[in-house]
C-alpha cells in the first residue's frame, strides 16, 4: 500500500509543477520569448547576385525590426557632426580650387611724386611717375593649378562619402549594442517572473508542511540573484539607449524590436573572394587616400614648374623737369630663382611619396579588415547554430529536471540549477544571434549593399 504522506507529497509536487507550467508557459522548458528550434548551419552558399551589381538596401537579408528604418538612418547620418565637418572641408577644397583657377598674381599700381627746388637757378619743379605691372602665370603653371583644382574637388567629394560610411558603421554598432542590452533585460525579466512564481509555490508548500526551510531559502536566494542581475541589465539597457539617442537623436523614435529566434535568416551569398573584392571595390577610404596621393603628385608637379619664375610686364609713365620731359615705357622683370625653390620641390616630392606609401598601408588595412569581417560573419553564424543547439539541449534538460521534481524524484536545487543553465544557454544563444546579424550587417554595409544612400 502506498504511504499516505508520500502520496500527499507527490500530489503537492505535481501541483507545484502544474502551477509553474500554467504561470510561465513551461518555464523550465522554454527559453524566454520566442522558442528556438535547432538551427541548421548557414554557410556561404552559391552566388545569387553578381559582385559589384547595385543592390537596393531593402533587399538586404535582414528580417523586419532587426535594423532601424532607412529613412531614420538617412536623417541620422545627414545630421551627424562628422558629416558636417567633411562637408565644410569639401567647401574649403572647392574654394581653394577656385583660388588656384583665378591665380594668385595681382596687378600692381605704383604712384610717386617729388618736388625739386633750384635756388638761384629757377623756379621749383614738380615731377611724378606712374607704374602699372602685372605678373604673368606661365601656361605650364596654369595647367598644373587646374589639375590641383580637380584633385581637390575629388578629395572633398570622397571625404564626405567616407564620413557618411564611418557614421553608418558607428550607428550600426550602437544599434546592435542596444539590441543586445534589451534582449538581456527581457530574458532576465522573464527569469525574475519565473523564479518569483517558484518562490511563492515553495512558500505555500512550506506552510502546508510539504517543503523544507532549506528549499525556501534556496528559492528566495535564486530570486534575489535574478533581481540583482535584472537591475544591472536595466542600467546597461538605459546606458545603451542614452548612447544611441545622444549620438543619433533622429533614432529616438525607433524602438528596437526583439529578434525572432525562430525566423531563419539567410546566409551569405557569395564566396570569400567575391565578398572581399566587393568591399575593396566600394571602399571610400582607399579611394580617398588615392585622391590625396594624386593631389600631392599634382602639387609636386606645380612645385617643379615653380622653379621657373613668373615674369612681370609693366607700363611706366613719368614727368620730369616740371613737365618738360615726358617719359612712357614698358618694362619686364624676372625674379632670379634661388635654392628655396629647389627645396620646395624636394619637399613636395617627399610628400607625394609619403601619400603613395599611405595608399599601400590603407589598402593592406582594408584588405585585412574585409577578410576579418567575412570570417567573423561566417564564424558568428556557425556559433549561432551551435549555441542554438545547446539551448535546445538545455531546454530538454530543464524539462527532465522538472518532470523528476514532479514525481518526487528530484530536488528543488536540481530544478534551480537546470533553470540557471537554461537561462545561460538562452542568453548565449541570443547574444550569438545578434553577433551574427551584426557581423552580416557590417559586411553588407562595407560592401555598400546596405544604407548606400549615395546612389539615390
How would you describe what is shown here?
- The protein has helices at residues 4-24, 70-78, 81-102, 139-208, 213-247, 272-282, 284-305, 339-406, 412-446; strands spanning 108-116, 125-135, 312-320, 325-333.
- With 456 residues, the protein is an alpha+beta fold.
- It has one domain (4-105, 138-309, 352-455): Outer membrane efflux proteins (OEP) (Up-down Bundle).
- The protein has a four-stranded antiparallel β-sheet with strand order 1-2-3-4, with no helix packed on it.
- Helix 6 packs across helix 8.
- The longest helix is centred in the middle third of the chain and has 70 residues, at 139-208.
- Residues 1-60 have low confidence and may be disordered.
Helical content, roughly?
55-70%
Q: Show unreliable segments.
A: 1-60
Count of discrete alpha- or pi-helical segments spanning 4 or more residues = 9
- The helix/strand series, from N terminus to C terminus, equals HHHEEHHHHEEHH
Basic shape:
elongated
CATH topology: Outer membrane efflux proteins (OEP)
Proper CATH architecture = Up-down Bundle
Strand content: 5-15%
N/C terminus separation = 82 Å
Strand order of the largest sheet: 1-2-3-4
Average the pLDDT over all residues and give the rounded result. 80
Relevant CATH superfamily: Outer membrane efflux proteins (OEP)
The largest sheet, given as strand count, sense and whether it forms a barrel, is: 4 strands, antiparallel
The top level CATH class name: Mainly Alpha
Integer tally of domains: 1
Report the strand count.
4
